[in-house]
Amino acid sequence: MEFRQLKTFVTAAQMESFSRAAQEMGYSQSAVTVQIRLLEEELGVKLFDRLGKRISLTAQGRRFLKQSLQILKEVNQAKETAAQEGEMDNPLHIGTLESLCSVKLPGVLSYFRTHHPKVSIKITTATPARLYEMLDQNLLDLIYLLDRPRFNPEWEKVMEKREPIVFVTPPDWWGERPVKVKMEELTEEPFFLTEKNENYRRELDAFLEARNLQLTPAVEISNTDFIIRQLKESGGISCLPFFAVEESLRKGELLVLDVEGMKMEMVQQIFYHKSKWKTREMGELIRQVRGNMEENPRKRG
């Protein structure tokens, strides 16, 4: 049994596809198929059921997956221990949201470029649902996201920070109107919002539904930076995480509307999969994100 066969088996199991596993590992699909067949012959068991182009683990395959993950984790731990005194050079693949990427990660990346230049960092932005899926498929080292508090027995949560969600608008567009308002007074205003069913937009829709209210957004887009620029340029209202608008609030470019009965919070969280050995590089990134939060205590608008 070869180490590469275990890695191929785990990748195929996590991605539920020989073709996607081949693409991820840089192999041909036939090479993946051969490696799995040889592994099954050596073990004397069938690891996958093949249903056309789809594959699924057999009962024996599920048991072997747990053992394989533990073996790979211990091998990675041994490699990490052997290189403990050396310079950090393991690559990092981070999954996150666009808003967190643009606001929270630039300082962390700058730190790595200065202190650990050999660490190659790849960032993938996606929805929370896709990030969770990629974490389970072992496509990411860790995920950093904003969502409801999440728990999964297969994940290790290493950071949790509550984040208020606020209504904001440009002061020159809002004019002399009172900043303390009822939601009923806002439904006809132009709203710039993230797309439906995405984290804090989902919370806003639940808030509206509980009050039998509805609004039609002027624009829906996942890019938070674009929303903030549009607010400043053309006026309107949005519902965004405080961290995303904190600088604009400090500069007086936006103000927070005090909407009656509206108190929404989400949680900044970092996870990695328990089957993955936490490398020094992962630990350092986690430490830097935590450190940035401690150095910049929350100022609520």
TrEMBL record:
GO terms for molecular function: DNA-binding transcription factor activity; transcription cis-regulatory region binding. Keywords: DNA-binding, Transcription, Transcription regulation. Pfam families: HTH_1 (PF00126), LysR_substrate (PF03466). Residues 1-58 form the HTH lysR-type domain. The keyword Glycoprotein does not apply. Belongs to the LysR transcriptional regulatory family. It comes from the Bacteria. This is LysR family transcriptional regulator. The keyword Transcription regulation applies. Gene3D superfamilies: 3.40.190.290, Winged helix-like DNA-binding domain superfamily/Winged helix DNA-binding domain (1.10.10.10). SUPFAM superfamilies: Periplasmic binding protein-like II, Winged helix' DNA-binding domain.
